[in-house]
Amino acid sequence: MIRDFDARYPLLAALEAPDLLAGMTSETLRTLGGEIRGFIIESVAHTGGHLGAGLGVVELTLALFAEFRFNTRDKLVWDVGHQCYPHKLITGRAGEFRSMRQWGGLSGFPDPGESTYDTVKTGHGGTSISTAMGFALAWRGQQADAERKAVAVIGDGSLQEGNAFEALNHGGSFKDLNLVVVLNDNNMSISPSVGAMSDYLSRVRSSTWLNERLRTIQRAIKRIPGIGDNIEDVLQRWYHSLQGIIPQHALGIVFEELGFFYYGPIDGHDVDALRHAFRSTHWMRRPVLIHVVTKKGLGYKDDVPDTTCYHAAPPSKVVSAAAASEFPEQGGPSFTSAFAEQVTSMLERDPRIVVLTAAMLEGTGLTSVQQRFPERCIDVGMAEQHAVGLASGLALAGYRPICAIYSTFLQRAFDQLFQEVALQRAPVIFCLDRGGLVGNDGATHHGVFDIAYLRCLPGFTLMAPRDTGELAQMMDLAATCEGPVAIRFPRGASARPQAQLESRPFAVGEAELVAEGTDGCLLAYGPMTYVALEVRRRIEAATGRMLCVVNARFAKPLDERLIAAELERQPVIFTLEDHVVAGGFGAAVAEFAIGRRLDAGRLEILGLPDIFIDHGERAQQFASVGLDVDAITEKVRARLDALEPARRPVRLVKST
Length: 656
Description:
Strand order of the largest sheet: 10-9-11-12-14-13-19
Distance between the termini: 58 Å
CATH class of the largest domain: Alpha Beta
Structural class: alpha/beta
Number of domains: 3
Strand content: 5-15%
CATH superfamily of the largest domain: Thiamin diphosphate (ThDP)-binding fold, Pyr/PP domains
Low-confidence stretches: 240-249, 646-653
Radius of gyration: 28 Å
Mean pLDDT: 86
Number of strands: 21
Largest sheet: 7 strands, mixed
């Protein structure tokens, strides 16, 4: 139950199971849809989250659950996952919705751990058709499963992914596959969709004459007693055959040629039309693609032309004010905004610079950059593999491309990183926003594997800035390198400008000695430098011990001279990183020490454990795995105490 929301959302509060939707009238479903839309807007305004995608699929979600049986017979796979808010509300989670994306609360994406209605845990785009096809293939040829349908709901932005095309190509080759692909066409991913497929769908959307005539004829035929439904089926088949011989209305010819029965386009906010589409195609034992046209963010600021404004809403001031800082000096400009400023500066100074992103203009801060440099700031759509391959070609042609992709999304282009970039020694600059823990988006979006998957590639240079000032220096330095470079930086704020360490020029592979000390060394990667400085202050205040702090700057190549010297003179070295321990920065230091036959036993690697970390504020996530300032201080002090028992502080016990 929704408790305090009951009075304002009576239908939603009374919905005990999604199976009840099948018996509701269209008018009731429309009223329920209005309640769901209002409830999402109110809740997301409090907690933050992906607002627009869910608002756009309210009627689609209701129609799907009214016509399919997802808990007992059929399977539903949401592409990307941030479309799933209405799905969560009607599957028993309305009462917990205020916990969305909060520590210990509901995930912002589908999660089978929350509900049996959530088929897979997913947060990336283009994968749903493959997954749904797996279910359909497993059921293929089984008489008991003849009625089962595997349904994938994919947005037009995700359809640009190579993975989606591969699945369509393969799925259409099976003529007896119970696979339903619902193409949610809203002309958007996060930013407006781009490319030939988007242009094609736009033409399809605008070709409404034949659809309107068909609907008029359908309404008339259905009134014929006894035979109306049969004639309607014949009309549908005639209509889809006609598409192939009328070029100006060849609405689904691309999908038909791929082997899918195409139905659409239909109004994705018309519950009657949606239910009719699902019911009309349910008898088919072949792959079906149903093209629905929706408006992303419907019901929220409909009069605002900036369509990206409602993709993701920030949390309320009440929620955000409760978020703890990760180190005392935090509170400066965001790394994303500093990156955008530096890109602009480089574009002004160097005609070789060109910037690429994959449907993430807004998230990477490049919207204003593209407006100013439309020919040199390229959004390739949701196609990370193509972005990396394109960047390689530009680099080999004499340009210095900057490829701005979130760390978690760059994983999708690993083969291109290997074949097209590393193997060719193409001088591409990768700027990996959201490096490390990302907070409320959770496990699907954490950028905690990039050091490991890039460090293994020959010729790559890996950097991480301690603050926004050093980020600008690293980007300038990267533009002088002869091979590929990756610069990772986190989501959120850097150190305040007045608190940032003084920036001096440095060369590739050169670390920075930030503070002297002989009782141990804190070897930090990226913004963890400021965490190390706070740990040093606390240790000195509590014990009088002086720790050395080093800003490593580089995970590859390491500053071998400095690290070797510290391993020789320090009793212990702690490596600090916002990355998994396996294959990360600390692992690189350990490999170096072993290779040089240095005392690797003096190393203690502090990083993220071998688990997936849930959604919540970054500070909460760090604390949960013992990587916050308090936990690191405790670990460092315990190790130092074990090394020097004689220097442990003496506790005075008052006699009784």
